[in-house]
Design a protein that fits this description.
The protein is flat and about 160 Å long. 1% of the residues lie in helices and 39% in strands. It contains one helix and 66 strands.
Length: 749
């Protein structure tokens, strides 16, 4: 409110003026005063309110209020350590289970009792025993259902079939690392693209937006802007006629850059969204893109299929991202020629898109061969590229179809998720006595490997000759920096068909100088299948062999994948005489001796169906052979290695051997080495030798005569437990020995 100050003046002998207050109203909305004097009255109204003044300072704070009541106490955190015994599936060497939670009662527990109950546990951690030189891993399979198969089957034959293929794993001294063959899980081979280094255009950047050809050599009179090779380096002619080194290159989408083989180097970064071609000069046999950084975008194309020579592609950069199409496939026709090779080198390499080096169909077996793909990184290699190095079909009447090409991955860390096709070449029915081309080869060298890739490497068919062998995958590890190798994906390395079926292929994994605790896992495989092919003379089953060699401790071998190494079934002939194939070989061996008594995790555990039976025919094939040797123990769910059924005579039973130098052996389902009736052949053999042998499930060795069973402890002590005499079932003429005690002669069946 604005106040008005009025000064009242008085004089002697005169009556003074009178002042009266005027309330707010019509006369003065804010009120005022009326001054009356002898000369009249004057109304003076108050003015309107002014702007508020600044806020004054806060006054002093008041006294604290009274303390409130104490709230309820929080639940106490509790920790419980539970020892894990030796041979616990989570820690074969023993360890501890650490459980953590709040003493809150949880879901149905008792609160504040000082005891961590199961309902109160919020997290758990397993800590396995180990030392500086041993890291013992878990044996618990993943929970994700599997979806993959490994096929190395022998080829079908009209006369004789091919034998099943081979899986060989030679695991180095892992000191607690295991070999796992699981029917669940999958390798995670997906990797996001690593961020590329920043592109620096430099002083002389070049952008190609049309069709441009690089001149192979420097010469006088070249127009300004002409790209030219000087001393092997990409350069450009300036306005003054001088030549400057190009410091970065970009080929825009829709543009075509044609380069000569003389170009060896491009300074700076290279980004290709368009097409790169190779000059058709007679001496141009290789396209080189060597840059500091090389990016081939998904729209990029390097296509040399129209080149008159068999020209190769070489890519080299510190960082390589090749996500477009690279095609060096062979062609037939007016410019008939073989496929060429692709080589990619760098520190970090990312592959996507498509790489093709297929052989063409041809009457010339040399021309039908495919090319090779070789990728070498000094740091990381990640590939989702579809790679095709299959051989072409052989159209000639004599000769030999080409085998599939080869793919090489080499880097400290490799992740592969793309499809690789490397089938051998087929022959036509006009090629009498020809041999189908063998499947191709994959070579992998890595310290750490995540592989989830479909591989097709079957042998070529030869209708009037012999089918080609299945391809091979060879994985080797060198150096102690890696700690895991995981393998997933459908793999088919089966032999080709023909009058004589081709044999199945090879999967070979060799570990050397690996770090303690290194793990090799086959994940998500429902079945390892290496069956013999079918024919009047059927093929034998294949082989799976896992071995920890040497005197230094290794790890356990655990198998939940089904194993099918059955001999092939014979195709009946009108005059009889068909023969089933023999069953295959399944060997799982940790280091057998007890030189390192502390290495008590070296077990063999088989928790799947294993079938090594012979195939059927007029004469059945013999059962196969299983050998499981675990220094610390052997546990087997069951093995069938029966002889094949025979219309004239059945095949003999196979053999099963269980060995443990310092542990126990046992089995959880029937072990069968019988020959089937009627017209049975001889029964097979079963042998178990360990510190303790527990016969909890039957052993069958039927046949004519029966088979031979031998069970003994290493110490020849009372460490053989037989649930009942009926658990051992041997036909007449067979024999059973327990700790050198002739049961057949001294027991009554």
């Amino acid at each position: 409110m604005r106040w008005i100050l009025v000064a009242l003046l008085t004089s002697t002998g005169c009556s003074g003026p009178s002042v009266t207050r005027v309330e707010p109203g019509a006369e003065c909305p804010a009120g005022g005063v009326r001054i009356a004097s002898g000369s009249g009255a004057e109304l003076i109204c108050n003015g309107s309110n002014g702007m508020p003044g600044a806020t004054g300072a806060d006054g002093p704070g008041g006294m604290n209020g009274a303390t409130g009541p104490t709230g309820p106490g929080g639940a106490q955190a509790l920790l419980r350590q539970t020892p894990l015994a030796l041979d616990d599936i989570r820690c074969p060497r023993g360890g501890v289970l650490v459980s953590i939670g709040l003493d809150s009662g949880g879901d149905g527990g008792i609160a504040s009792d000082g005891v961590l109950q199961p309902a109160e546990v919020t997290s758990e951690q397993v800590i396995c025993n180990g030392d500086d030189s041993s890291r013992v891993g878990s044996l618990v399979p993943p929970t994700q259902p599997g979806a993959f198969s490994l096929r190395l089957n022998g080829g079908v034959g009209s006369v004789e079939a091919g034998k099943g293929g081979t899986v060989i794993v030679e695991a180095g001294p892992t000191r607690g690392g295991h070999v796992k063959m699981f029917k669940t899980g999958a390798a995670d081979a997906s990797v996001p693209a690593p961020p590329p280094p920043a592109s620096i255009p430099g002083h002389t950047p070049v952008i190609i937006s049309g069709n441009v050809s690089v001149v192979a050599s420097e010469s006088a009179g070249l127009d300004a802007g002409t790209l030219v090779v000087r001393s092997g380096i990409l350069s450009v002619v300036g306005a003054d006629g001088g030549v400057s080194t190009v410091t970065s290159l970009r080929v825009s989408q829709g543009a075509i850059l044609t380069i000569p083989a003389e170009l060896n180097r491009i300074r700076g970064s290279c980004i290709v969204d368009g097409r790169v071609a190779l000059s058709a000069a007679t001496n141009s046999f290789r396209l080189n893109l060597r840059c500091d950084e090389l990016r081939l975008s998904p729209s990029s194309v390097i296509d040399l299929t129209g080149h008159p020579a068999s020209a190769a592609v070489s890519l080299f950069a510190e960082f390589v991202a090749a996500e477009g199409t690279i095609d060096v496939s062979g062609v037939s026709g007016a410019i008939s020629r073989a496929a060429a090779d692709v080589e990619i080198q760098g520190s970090r390499i990312l592959l996507g898109g498509t790489i093709r080096a297929r052989g063409p169909d041809s009457t010339n077996s040399t021309l039908s061969r495919p090319g090779t793909v070789r990728v070498v990184a000094t740091s990381q290699l990640s590939s989702s590229s579809a790679i095709d190095v299959s051989a072409g079909r052989f159209l000639g009447v004599s000769g030999e179809p080409a085998r599939g090409g080869s793919v090489t991955f080499e880097a400290p860390a490799v992740r592969q998720s793309g499809t690789i096709t490397m089938n051998g070449g087929d022959a036509t029915s006009a090629c009498i006595g020809c041999i189908g081309g063998n499947g191709g080869t994959i070579l992998v060298k890595a310290d750490t490997l995540f592989w989830n890739s479909t591989v097709l490497g079957t042998g070529g068919a030869a209708p009037t000759g012999e089918g080609g062998s299945g391809g091979d995958i060879r994985i080797s590890r060198f150096g102690p920096t890696g700690d895991v190798a995981q393998i997933s994906g459908n793999i088919d390395l089966s032999g080709g068909s023909g009058e004589l079926g081709g044999p199945g292929g090879l999967l070979n994994v060799i570990e050397r100088d690996v770090a303690p605790g290194f793990e090799l896992s086959f994940l998500g495989y429902l079945e390892f299948q290496a069956r013999g092919g079918s024919a009047p003379l059927a093929g034998g089953g294949g082989r799976v062999d896992v071995l920890f060699p040497g005197p230094v401790s290794g790890g356990a071998v655990i198998v939940t994948t089904g194993v099918d190494l059955r001999g092939g079934n014979a195709v009946s002939l009108s005059d009889g005489g068909s023969t089933g194939g023999n069953g295959g070989v399944f060997y799982l061996r940790t280091r057998g001796s007890a030189l390192d008594p502390m290495a008590n995790w070296e077990r063999v555990i088989v928790q799947s169906s294993v079938d090594l039976s012979g195939g059927s025919g007029a004469s059945g094939g013999s059962g196969g052979s299983a050998l499981f040797e675990g220094k610390s123990g052997v546990t087997v769910s069951g093995v069938v290695t029966r002889g094949g059924a025979g219309a004239e005579v059945a095949g003999g039973g196979g053999s099963i051997t269980l060995l443990s130098s310092a542990g126990e052996v046992g089995w959880t389902s029937v072990m069968d080495v019988s020959s089937p009736a009627p017209d049975a052949g001889p029964g097979g053999s079963f042998s178990a030798k360990a510190q303790t042998v527990r016969v909890a499930q039957p052993i069958r060795a039927h046949g004519q005569p029966g088979g031979f069973l031998r069970i003994e402890s290493n110490a020849h002590a009372t460490s053989v437990s037989v649930s009942a005499p009926s658990g051992i079932d041997v036909s007449s003429g067979g024999a059973v020995l327990i700790d050198s005690f002739d049961v057949t002669s001294n027991w009554t069946h």
